[in-house]
Design goal:
By secondary structure, the protein is of the alpha/beta class. Among the domains are: 97 residues, D-Amino Acid Oxidase, subunit A, domain 2 (D-Amino Acid Oxidase, Chain A, domain 2); 39 residues. Helix content is 35%, strand content 28%. It contains 10 helices and 18 strands. The strands form 3 sheets. Strands 1, 2, 8, 9, 10, 11, 17 and 18 form an 8-stranded mixed β-sheet that branches. It has a 7-stranded mixed β-sheet with strand order 6-5-13-14-15-12-16. It has a 3-stranded antiparallel β-sheet with strand order 3-7-4. Strand 5 and strand 6 form a beta hairpin. The structure holds flavin-adenine dinucleotide (FAD). Flavin-adenine dinucleotide binds next to helix 1, strand 2, strand 3, strand 9 and strand 12.
């Protein structure tokens, strides 16, 4: 029977990066992905800060567009910040995952696309993994360690869907459209985020730029009953509203409509390991639920996991409880805050309160905004409010003094 040191299931950012690191370290790695090419499940909006490129050793060829401006809109308020230099990227999500998979092969690993994981069995201490290539019979191979990188589906950790606990669920749909030059220039350097009942009740919406006159326009809605909104409209209607009322465009070509799910475990209570299986990426809720940003965190989990996987392969030492602890320490504080804030903003706040929150952002610098949006430093928002109160007190004192 064919044997690999490690089998990684799922060639998203987590699985691709993990397999790439292990192949570079000289292990016999197999990366399996159910889709037969990366353009089929090209679901992610894929915005990230600039540092992601260097941090994860990614080439410019996986970048679709650089961004340097931020805009935030609610129903009645619009705020914007500009920079002179690029602050981040919008990846071509298909190219990013393709690059990672190619790097696995380049470093001596094996990649099977169009190959679905079915189940695993442990017999005599050996892990047998059952896979199925498109149109073929189920077959089995053996490994020392199996990695669940199947994203929200958690296909290895939860073989039976009915055993899955209740997750905090978000559903996102995005249009990839081609627009005229004038419209493109307006959005080509900016990430535009929407909050509030008009654009995205119970969630958020966005416009992100891609290369070649393309824009990504999307909406994500959280599952659950909103305190004030009885029922949301179908997600696509909010995307159409942005196209009509915000971009004000009638002639555009829809290149692709895609979407996916985020299933986040409240309080980070996922299964991180069991038997000879370890889970990485969205399978252990590395995505930030407030912003739906998950690519670099999925890759971060792959890097943390790599150390423990190597230890296991070299010394047969299973220290995966330390992997869980390290990952939780890295994420828990800010991820728990993000979870609480997203419940409040997306499921409890009135539209007026969201407008007020966005209005206060004018007291914050671009640096503060980036720290809040991409590094979840919510204390920066309070700092802005404190500055506003101090300014008001000073103005009041000056008036009293003059009188
Ligand atoms: C609409 C939307 C917009 C987003 N926008 C952004 C953004 O702007 N920036 C950002 O950083 N993040 C964004 N994210 C989040 C980000 O895309 C995810 O957090 C990230 O892709 C998680 O990586 P992963 O490798 O853990 O899982 P995934 O990318 O989900 O990869 C899992 C892979 O496993 C495969 N798989 C599943 N089951 C099996 C099986 N049985 N056999 C074989 N293969 C299997 C899947 O096909 C998939 O390719 C967005 C998400 C959504 C849904």
């Amino acid at each position: 029977m064919q044997f690999f040191d490690v089998i990684v299931v799922g060639a998203g950012p987590a699985g691709g990066h993990c397999a790439r690191l292990l192949a570079k370290a000289g292990y016999q790695v197999l990366l399996v992905e159910q889709h037969d090419d990366f353009y089929k499940n090209n679901f992610s909006s894929a915005a990230s800060p600039l540092e992601t490129l260097q941090q994860y050793d990614l080439p410019e060829s996986v970048v679709s567009r650089y961004w340097k401006n931020i805009e935030i809109c609610s129903t009645n308020i619009h705020r914007s910040w500009q920079a002179k230099q690029p602050l981040g990227v919008v990846f071509d999500f298909a190219k990013l995952r393709e690059f990672l998979a190619e790097d696995v092969t380049k470093n001596g690993g094996v990649v099977w696309l169009g190959c679905r994981y079915i189940k695993y069995l442990i017999e005599d201490g050996k892990t047998t993994v059952f896979l199925q290539k498109k149109g073929s019979e189920i077959f089995s191979i053996q490994t020392k360690l199996l990695v669940d990188a199947t994203g929200y589906s958690r296909a290895v950790m939860y073989p039976n869907k009915k055993d899955k606990p209740k997750f905090f669920k978000g559903i996102g749909i995005e249009y990839l459209i081609k627009v005229d030059e004038k419209t493109y220039q307006k959005y080509s350097d900016s990430l535009v985020f929407f909050l509030g009942y008009k654009w995205s009740p119970q969630g958020y919406s966005w416009i992100f730029p891609m290369s070649n006159y393309q824009l990504k326009v999307g909406t994500a809605i959280l599952e659950g009953q909103h305190k004030f909104i009885q029922k949301t409209k179908p997600i696509k209607e909010y995307i159409h509203q942005i196209l009509q009322d915000y971009i004000q465009i009638e002639n555009y070509n829809i290149i692709n409509i895609h979407g996916s799910i985020l299933d986040y475990s409240p309080g980070l209570n996922d299964i991180y390991y069991k038997d000879q299986v370890i889970a990485i990426g969205d399978t252990v809720s590395t995505v930030n639920f407030l912003g739906g940003e998950g690519i670099r965190y999925a890759m971060k989990s792959a890097e943390v996991a790599e150390q423990y996987i190597k230890e296991y392969l070299e010394h047969n030492q299973q220290n995966f409880q330390k992997y869980e602890a390290e990952l939780k320490q890295h994420f828990s504080k800010r991820w728990n805050w993000s979870e609480q804030i997203s419940r409040k903003v997306y499921l409890e706040y009135s539209d007026a309160r969201i407008d007020q929150g966005v209005s206060f952002l004018k007291y914050l610098s671009l640096e503060d905004i980036i720290d809040i949006l991409f590094y979840y430093q919510f204390e920066k928002y309070t700092k802005g409010l404190k500055a506003l109160i101090l300014r008001k007190i000073n103005t009041f004192l000056k008036k009293v003094h003059l009188a």
